[in-house]
Amino acid sequence: MKYGLITGAVALSMGLTAPVAAQSASQMLKGTAIGAGGGALAGAIIPGVSVGTGALVGAAGGAAYTALKKNHHYYRDSRGRRYYVNKYGQRVYR
Known about the structure:
Shape: elongated
Radius of gyration: 17 Å
Helix content: 55-70%
Strand order of the largest sheet: 1-2-3
Low-confidence stretches: 17-22
Number of strands: 3
Number of domains: 1
């Protein structure tokens, strides 16, 4: 029962967060893998939490973080102000 809830939470978080930010699949997988590795390490260290449970929770957290973060590449204009280019090709100053 416990593992079913965790697995369901991971599947739900992946399903809900993936379309939100429209990130590439490689970025999503990288964030998920980093979260799973950190969670597995935490599961090995924290008593009462198994490595598998830690990896599942970490993977869900990594996927959610990757999907919700704003991945902007900042540039500088001739006056030194920072900006990024949005999906419409417009400069957005910070």
